[in-house]
Each structure stands twice: as C-alpha cells, then as structure tokens.
C-alpha cells in the first residue's frame, strides 16, 4: 500500500523578502584537476573543437546550465601554480609535475585560453592567486599582466601574446584552503591573515575596484573553524570583501535520510560564518559587511578516494579523477543546496558548484566522444534560469524527519523568487523524505491573478538511477500538468525524494 500523503500548508508572500537573487550564485569551478580542463572544456582534437581547441558540445551545455561566473585555476592546484607557465607560445610552455593531484601539467591551457573560453561561454572569470608557494609579488605581476592596459613590461607582454585588451577580471581569490594541511604552503591563521591582507593591499594599489576573497576554513569540521575566520579577518577585514566557504556532501554508509537533509548543515555553516564575520566587524568597529563566496560546493563521493583504491597510477597528464556518476538522490540534494544558497542570499553573494566538467562535474565529457548532462545538472540549470528578482522566504509547517546526523529536519525544503517587473513567481521545493509524499496546499492569496505557467519535477522510482554514456537521458526532469490555482490556493503533490519547480505568472499567456 502506498504511504499516505502528508499535508503541508505553505505560505508565500511578497512581504517575506530576503534579498535580491544574486547572479553570481550560479557560479561553477574549473580546476586543473583530472579531466576538467583537458578533454573536459579543452580538447583540440575533438570533432566539436573550435579554432581555440574548446569543445563546442561542452560550451553548449555550459550555456544551457546557466553558469554565470567560473573560478579558475584551482583549488589545491593553484597553491603550486606558476601562472607564467601558461602564457605565451605553447611550444615554449614547460611541462611540470603537479603535486596537488599527482599529475603532469602540460600548460597547454592557461590564462589566455581560460579567458577566451569564458568569453565564448559568456561567463565572468574569477581568478585565484597562488598564496601557497608564492606571495604578493607574483599576485601583483599576474594582475598587471591581466588587467593593466599597456605600457609596462607585463601588460606589454600580454599584447605580445596576442591580447591587447585587458581582461578586466574583477573577482580574485587570495589563495585556496590555506588552513588545510594538504595544501601546498599551508599556513596558520596568523600567517595567512597577514599574507592575505598584504596581498590584497598590494593588489588594490594597482586596481582599487577589485573584489577580493579571503580563504575561510575548508569546511566546518576543520579543527580551526571558526577561529580561523576570526583571526584572518582581524588582519584582513579592511582589505577584503568576501570570505570563502567550501563544503562537499555525500551519502555516508547508506544513510539516505541524513544525506537528503544535508542542506541544514550548509545552512548552519553559513550562519556560523556570518556570525564570525559580524563578530570581527563589531570588535574592530567596522562599518562594512563581509559577504560569503561559497566558491566550492557540491555532492562529492570523497570517501571513494581521489585516485581509487590503488592510489595514483604514476604521474599522468589529465588522469580521470573523481568522476562520480550522479544519481537522482544526488540531484535532489543539489536542488536543496541551491535552495539553501538562495535563502542565504543576504550574505552569500557568490557561489561556485565544484566542478564544471568530469571531475565532480555536472557535465560529463568523453575524450573524443559525447558530452552529456549528469542528474545534478538539471536543478542547477532550472534554478539559474528561473530564479529572478527577489528571494522570498517560504513559511510552512511540514512533518519532521528523524536523521542520525542532523536530528529532526523539516521534510519540505523550499524557497521562492519574485520578479515584480516581470510578474513572475517561482517556487523551488524539495521533498526530503525517503518514503512519504507531501501534499502541499500553497497559499497564494498575496498574488492575485497569478496562474501556473510550468511545473517541472525531477523524480524517479529508482533514486539510484544515473545518466551514463549508454543512457545519457535516463534521468531528466519531467513536466507535470494539471496544477491550477483555485481561490488563491495551489495543490501540489511532491513524491518522496523529489525536486520541483513551479513557475507562476500574472502576465497574459
Ligand atoms: O574541488 C576539488 C578540491 O576540493 C579543490 O581543489 C580543493 O580546494 C578542495 O579541497
């Protein structure tokens, strides 16, 4: 017998405004890790490659995914990276050992290729500088090369390399996960706080309009969280605009209930970082607010190991690393994490799903073969396309689910966005329950004249179903028809383990 429907009354009102939808929430991440760059976005021998060697099939998917900003070149990779290796004539670029991912780096793809790719993909580039094995001097040089119009050694070198126009990159990460003992050049909070502040100050002397991100902790389980953030900001508060946050989720030991509820962990993490930033603001008598760049988040089955059971198979160029086949459950979790990021748009003003292609990627691309959408691609693509205007809190009292990791968690996770000008209201909702359907009674009386334009749902009877090269379209969202508003109320059925988007409008059809 099917489980009974659990009734939930949901209230949406334009008065429940949180913050504007930030376009940078829909960022992604390209790292020189595994096959994200080589045979991911860049493969000159591929049949779809353009004149720069970029895969057009992947570019089409990136545009469809609605990615707005892309962080580059790492990640752990950046902490040993020499940006100079990746510019100039390709035949003169050095091949080097890349210790972070135990790989060989050809440097065939570097800054020029990335910015060219970003322009073709119509995404904003976000750069990271190496504060692991390098420091302020090299960051200043990279900035001069990238953003200065001309008339200096490094900006003229850029001209000589075929690019007269400065890149105008605005957002820069000051290193990566510098609290992590795995990081090349790992530092204490005191050391990194000073280095980040001095690097930021030097970079701002060249270009005061930059937006700078200080490294936060690599995750809430780091022993130094949140004293790391407090110490770093005590040094760098004046000089930076963001502190970074990183978090990966996976299902542990078959505990699906906790996995589906993991958005609450991201939400708590954001709340704790905000509290720490505001503590330093109060302590140092500052006016300005530090926002969060959640520049690494995703589902990642890290417990399966980076290199598989046998460890690295020697030093290889672009080995396949961390190429998870994402399931329906993973996609529902990604939908829920996006709901969390939207709900925290008052302080999370940039975010990057990690990563874009192949390595923990929303897109999978075979070398010389096809590219396809992983399950997690879909909630991202729909949310990026249809979240607009103002984020609205959704009020509800849903049944509580018992989870071993997070205690009692609401079965319904939801947020709405409201675009007054376009008369568009969009509801994003996840049923976190592994077994029970939810019967939503959505109170829309604050939106007179609205009707349902589209309802889309990602759900399969087999929550472990995934898209593979043999069956690339096995999992995809389906349209649901027949929902209508009656006297200001909308009835919606949300199956267990499902992600749903409902678009409403007051405009005439
Ligand atoms: O995205 C993969 C890796 O995860 C990044 O290189 C690092 O910053 C994080 O630990």
Detailed description of the structure:
- The chain is of the alpha/beta class and 509 residues long.
- It has two domains: 124 residues, Golgi alpha-mannosidase II (Immunoglobulin-like, Sandwich), CATH 2.60.40.1180; 347 residues, TIM Barrel (Alpha-Beta Barrel).
- The strands form six sheets. An eight-stranded parallel beta barrel has the order 3-4-7-8-9-10-11-13, surrounded by six helices. Strands 2-16-20-21-27-23-24 form a seven-stranded antiparallel sheet, covered by helices on one side. A five-stranded mixed sheet has the order 17-1-22-26-25, with no helix packed on it.
- Helix 1 links the parallel strand 3 and strand 4.
- It is globular and about 70 Å long.
- The relative contact order is 0.16.
- The mean pLDDT is 96.
- Alpha-L-arabinofuranose binds next to loops.
Features of this protein?
509 residues; alpha/beta; Immunoglobulin-like; TIM Barrel; 2 domains; 7-stranded antiparallel sheet; globular; binds alpha-L-arabinofuranose
């Amino acid at each position: 017998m099917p489980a009974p429907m659990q009734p939930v009354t949901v209230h949406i009102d334009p008065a429940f405004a949180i913050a504007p939808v930030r376009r940078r929430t829909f960022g992604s991440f390209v790292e020189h890790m595994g096959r994200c760059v080589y045979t991911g976005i860049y493969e000159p021998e591929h049949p779809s490659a353009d004149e720069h060697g970029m895969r057009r099939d992947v570019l089409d998917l990136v545009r469809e995914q609605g990615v707005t900003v892309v962080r580059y070149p790492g990640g752990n990779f950046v902490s040993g990276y020499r940006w100079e290796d990746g510019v100039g004539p390709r035949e003169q670029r050095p091949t080097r050992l890349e210790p972070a991912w135990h790989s060989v780096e050809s440097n065939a793809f570097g800054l020029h290729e990335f910015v060219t790719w970003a322009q073709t993909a119509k995404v904003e580039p976000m750069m990271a500088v190496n504060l692991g094995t390098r420091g302020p001097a090299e960051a200043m040089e990279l900035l001069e090369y990238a953003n200065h119009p001309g008339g200096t050694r490094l900006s003229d070198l850029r001209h000589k390399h075929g690019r007269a126009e400065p890149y105008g990159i605005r957002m820069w990460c000051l290193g990566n996960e510098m609290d992590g003992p795995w990081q090349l050049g790992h530092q204490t909070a005191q050391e990194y706080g000073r280095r980040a502040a001095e690097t930021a100050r030097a970079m701002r002397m060249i270009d005061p309009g930059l937006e700078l991100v200080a490294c936060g902790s690599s995750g809430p389980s780091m022993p130094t969280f949140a004293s790391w953030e407090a110490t770093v900001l005590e040094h760098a508060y004046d000089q930076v605009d963001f502190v970074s946050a990183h978090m990966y989720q996976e299902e542990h030991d078959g505990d699906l209930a906790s996995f589906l509820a993991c958005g609450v962990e991201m939400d708590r993490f954001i709340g704790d970082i905000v509290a720490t930033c505001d503590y330093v603001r109060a302590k140092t008598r500052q006016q300005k607010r530090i926002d969060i760049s959640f520049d690494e988040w995703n589902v990642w089955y890290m417990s399966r190991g980076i290199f598989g059971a046998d460890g690295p198979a020697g030093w290889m160029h672009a080995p396949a690393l961390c190429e998870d086949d994402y399931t329906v459950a993973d996609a529902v979790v990604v939908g829920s994490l996006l709901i969390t990021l939207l709900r925290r748009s008052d302080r999370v003003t940039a975010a990057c799903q990690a990563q874009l292609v192949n390595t923990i990627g929303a897109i999978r691309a075979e070398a010389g073969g096809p590219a396809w959408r992983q399950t997690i691609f879909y909630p991202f693509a729909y949310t990026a396309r249809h979240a607009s205007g103002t984020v609205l809190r959704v009020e509800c009292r849903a049944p509580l689910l018992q989870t071993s990791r997070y205690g009692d968690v609401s079965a319904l996770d939801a947020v709405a966005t409201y675009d007054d000008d376009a008369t568009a209201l969009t509801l994003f909702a996840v049923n976190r329950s592994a077994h029970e359907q939810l019967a939503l009674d959505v109170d829309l009386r604050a939106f007179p004249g609205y009707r349902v334009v589209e309802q889309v749902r990602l759900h399969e009877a087999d929550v472990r179903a995934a898209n593979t090269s043999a069956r690339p379209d096995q999992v995809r969202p389906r349209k649901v028809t027949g929902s209508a508003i009656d006297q200001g109320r909308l009835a919606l059925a949300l199956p267990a383990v499902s992600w749903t988007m409902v678009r409403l409008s007051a405009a005439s059809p």
